[in-house]
Amino acid sequence: MDKKKTKQYEARLTEQRNMLLGMVERTEDYGREADRDVSQDPADKASNSYTKELLFSQSTNERNTLKLIEEALDRITERTFGDCINCSEEIQPKRLDAIPWTPHCIRCQEALEQGLLAEKEA
């Protein structure tokens, strides 16, 4: 992959990382606020519990994406960005345009989702 295209991906990944960091921070703040609201009403407690679970789920998804983005930025530094971490084949440009933090080509991603491929750390 040429340097210009890599720089474009790096800029997109950095922007996405910064946005997610802000979202994770806000989600944590909302979770702390929900903890402060100590009410005795069972309906309020149930609603509060649901809200905390929803925030936790969102935070987990954001953190997982954030981890993938950090790994993609590391691959840029290592000059392996754009290559599948499993088979080392080039990841299709359309796939990278859609999901620039993806570590796998479409073939390996499908195998991973079918349980035919063990997940590797990037």
Please give a structural write-up.
This protein has 122 residues and is an all-alpha fold. The protein has a single domain, classed as Four Helix Bundle (Hemerythrin (Met), subunit A), CATH 1.20.120.910. The chain has 4 helices and no strands. α1 packs antiparallel against α2. It starts with a helix and ends in a 9-residue tail after the last helix.
Strand proportion, as a percent range, falls in under 5%
Largest sheet: none
Number of helical segments?
A: 4
Report the order of strands and helices: HHHH
Give the total of beta strands.
Answer: 0
CATH architectural label: Up-down Bundle
Number of domains: 1
Which percent range fits the helix content? 55-70%
Radius of gyration from the CA trace? 19 Å
Low-pLDDT sequence parts: none
- The SS-based structural class is mainly alpha
Mean pLDDT: 86
CATH topology: Four Helix Bundle (Hemerythrin (Met), subunit A)
Summarize the SSE layout with pairings:
Elements: H1 3-36, H2 42-78, H3 93-98, H4 106-113
Helix pairs in contact: 1-2
Briefly say what this structure is.
This protein has four helices and no strands. The protein has 122 residues and is mainly α. It is elongated and about 60 Å long.
Name the features.
122 residues, mainly alpha, Four Helix Bundle (Hemerythrin (Met), subunit A), 4 helices, 70% helix, elongated
